[in-house]
Write a structure and sequence with these properties.
The strands form three sheets. A four-stranded mixed beta sheet has the order 1-4-5-8. Strands 2-3-7-6 form a four-stranded antiparallel beta sheet, with no helix packed on it. The protein has helices at residues 7-23, 25-34, 39-47, 66-79, 81-91, 96-101, 104-116, 234-270, 282-310, 316-341, 343-346, 351-359, 369-381, and strands at residues 120-124, 140-144, 147-158, 165-176, 182-190, 196-201, 212-223, 227-228, 272-273, 276-277. With 385 residues, the protein is α+β, with helices and mostly antiparallel strands. The two termini are 34 Å apart. It folds into three domains: 7-116, Orthogonal Bundle (Butyryl-Coa Dehydrogenase, subunit A, domain 1); 121-232, Beta Barrel (Butyryl-CoA Dehydrogenase, subunit A, domain 2), CATH 2.40.110; 236-381, Butyryl-CoA Dehydrogenase, subunit A, domain 3 (Up-down Bundle). Residues 122-220 form the Acyl-CoA oxidase/dehydrogenase middle domain. Pfam families: Acyl-CoA_dh_1, Acyl-CoA_dh_M, Acyl-CoA_dh_N. This is Acyl-CoA dehydrogenase family protein.
């Protein structure tokens, strides 16, 4: 088994590492403290052709594949989790429904400006009363004389309120079958649509530079051609693209563990107590050993899931495993690293404090870890739990 990345992906990763060191790391702490979403940075990412890595070339993307995507995420996320999370939401669940199910006109109209980075995308699934229970959403879309009328509220939506937001792709209930089962539809609601309102920015524990807010739809009218794919298939469409999103969150978590480990090693080597560096103490060195081992294990899971996806092989279970393990590794690594930093780590101006605050959401977003365990268990037991 060849575990080396192809040369072209290594070159891409090196470029992204250099870019992140120059354009992200020096500013990340300030963006976090100010809650500032750096549109100018995403326009520079667009200049590097990184905003449409999973979109076909004919629609402005590069179709680079999941392994290349994970390699880029490893560098962006190691520099700043807010930037990487925004890039992730845009690149996966905001763009992939259009790429997979949109009409040619929809792809040219909405997918192209997303893939080229002219605009940034958002996806609206979670609601005040529905998150892990995606089928339990309350937002409804009803047919009207000239299209669809949408009513409902979406919660914790990223990228919808920036200066470069194009609109939001959302899931809504469209009716019921003859047997009483719910039907769902996926819709694109552009910025400026009548009846579409954005709430204030939410103040979060972490991901401070990521724009996250509530979206409210009150008799929001969209034309018929804003329905993506087939009415009734909306939930299936969302689930079809979710697995790639899980790989991307796993890669985001892996990148956090990588930075937590680096910061721990740097601080432990430079900080002296009782006449010796912290690395001379077994309690500290064992923490570092555990962090390094778990990071490598998480990295192997993430890249294997991406490798399977690129080869068109089943990868849903592997994506769930990668997301579950990598997110828990990230939280353990952040905790160990902050402990090694001691009081210095607890000060907000320390780099590890920002990554520590960012870690917890990785066990929640893109399907909680409890949901990941359900997915894995069903795959292994045939649905019996």
């Amino acid at each position: 088994m060849d575990l080396d990345l192809p040369a072209e992906i290594v070159d891409l990763q090196d470029m992204c590492r250099d870019f992140a060191a120059k354009e992200i790391t020096p500013h990340a702490a300030r963006w976090s403290e100010e809650g500032y979403f750096p549109c100018e940075l995403f326009r520079r990412l667009a200049g590097l052709e990184l905003m449409g890595m999973l979109v076909p070339e004919e629609y402005g993307g590069t179709d680079a594949g999941m392994v290349a995507y994970v390699a880029v995420m490893e560098e962006l996320g190691a520099a700043d989790q807010s930037v990487a999370a925004a890039w992730n939401a845009h690149s996966t669940i905001a763009s992939l429904p259009l790429a997979a199910f949109g009409t040619e006109e929809q792809k040219q109209r909405w997918l192209r400006p997303l893939a080229t980075g002219e605009k940034i995308g958002a996806f609206g699934l979670t609601e005040p009363g529905a998150g892990s229970d995606a089928a339990g959403i309350a937002t409804r879309a009803e047919r009207s004389r000239d299209g669809w009328l949408i009513n409902g509220t979406k919660m914790f939506i990223s990228n919808a309120g920036t200066d470069m937001s194009l609109g939001v792709t959302l899931l809504a209930v469209t009716g019921t079958t003859e047997g009483g089962a719910r039907r769902y539809g996926t819709f694109f609601v552009p910025d400026g649509a009548e009846g579409y309102a954005k709430g204030r920015r939410l103040e979060k524990l972490g991901w401070h530079a990521l724009d996250t807010r509530e979206l409210v739809f009150t008799d929001c009218r969209v034309p018929e051609d804003h329905l993506i794919g087939v009415e009734g298939d909306g939930l299936r469409q969302f689930l079809a693209v979710l697995d790639r999103g899980r790989i991307s969150v796993a890669a985001l978590a892996m990148s956090l563990a990588k930075t937590a480990l680096r910061l721990a090693v740097e601080h432990a080597g430079a900080r002296w107590q009782f006449g010796r560096p912290l690395t001379a103490f077994q309690g500290v060195s064992h923490k570092i050993a555990d962090m390094a081992t778990e990071y490598e294990a998480a990295r192997a899971l993430v890249y294997r899931a991406a490798w399977l996806a690129d080869r068109g092989r089943p990868f849903a279970t592997e994506a769930a495993m990668a997301k579950l393990y990598a997110s828990e590794v990230a939280n353990r690594a952040a905790s160990h690293s902050l402990q090694i930093h001691g009081g210095y780590g607890y000060i907000r101006e320390s780099e590890i404090s920002r990554f520590y605050a960012d870690a917890k959401i990785l066990e929640i977003g893109e399907g909680t870890n409890e949901i990941q365990r359900n997915v894995i268990a069903r795959a292994l037991t045939g649905g019996h739990r």
